[in-house]
Amino acid sequence: MDIATEFSDVGAPPSPDPTNRLHFYPKTDIASLETVREASKSISSKAPVMYGLVNCAGISPQTASIINSDEAFDAIMAVNVNGAWNVGTEYLRYLLKTEEETLATTPTASGVSLPIDPPSNDAGVSKVTASMVNVGSAVPTHGFADLAAYTARKHAVLDLTRAWSKDFALKGVRINCLAPGTTDTLFSGIPSHRK
User: Fold this and answer.
1) pLDDT per residue as tens digits for the range 141-187
2) Shortest CA distance to 52 belongs to which of 63, 43, 60?
3) How do strand 52-55 and strand 173-178 relate by DSSP bridges?
4) Predicted TM-score (pTM) of this structure
5) What are the CA-CA distances from residue 63 to residues 136, 146, 189 (Å)?
6) Order of strands, edge to edge, in the sheet holding 173-178?
7) pLDDT tens digit string along 56-84?
């Protein structure tokens, strides 16, 4: 689905110029690590300094069955979990590489390169130098009928966020998970009996 086309079909204003440095959206299959890496290189060439990432993509095939097909489950996990992993780890690798390059080329007063240390304020608390927001859902905390595969996916993103936030907090990277509730959109396709 081309979201820009979908939005224009329902009367939404056109998206910003996709060649604009601040509004660059390379078409990417996030389930494929190779295409995510290519997109990351493309983004880095247009915006070499990245302070944040919003990791927001997903699919939720609607079926008449309470049990998704194995193929649907695999597709949900490939896009929603592997995609979050692929995009998130590429961004975190970028941050680690940037940190190493910056520290390796930033001499102290004595001319010696700084050790890899998290930036901190006067109280010794790490300063936030970059952020990542993973978009999850309220689904894992409440559970909804007919959404077992989707719930598994959202739980994976929540726990991935928890682990990454602990791994990268001392490096000055804030990682949060946004957990919105159900919203009636074209994506959600909420059946009328549930509205």
Assistant:
1) 877 777 888 888 889 999 999 999 999 998 889 999 998 887 777 65
2) 43
3) unpaired
4) 0.71
5) 21, 9, 11
6) 52-55, 130-135, 173-178
7) 988 877 666 677 788 888 998 999 999 99
Tokens encoding 120: 């901190």
DSSP per-residue string spanning the chain: --HHHHHHHTTPPPPPPTTSTTS------TT-HHHHHHHHHHHHHH-S---EEEE--------SSSS--HHHHHHHHIIIIIHHHHHHHHHHHHHHHHHHHHHHT-B-TTSPBPPS---B-TTSPBPP-EEEEEE--SHHHH--TT-HHHHHHHHHHHHHHHHHHHHHGGGTEEEEEE------STTT---GGG-
CATH of domain 49-106+113-181: 3.40.50.720
> Which residue reads 């086309």 in tokens?
5
How many other C-beta atoms are found inside a 10 Å radius of the C-beta of residue 167? 12
Do the beta carbons of residue 31 and residue 82 sit within 8 Å?
Answer: yes
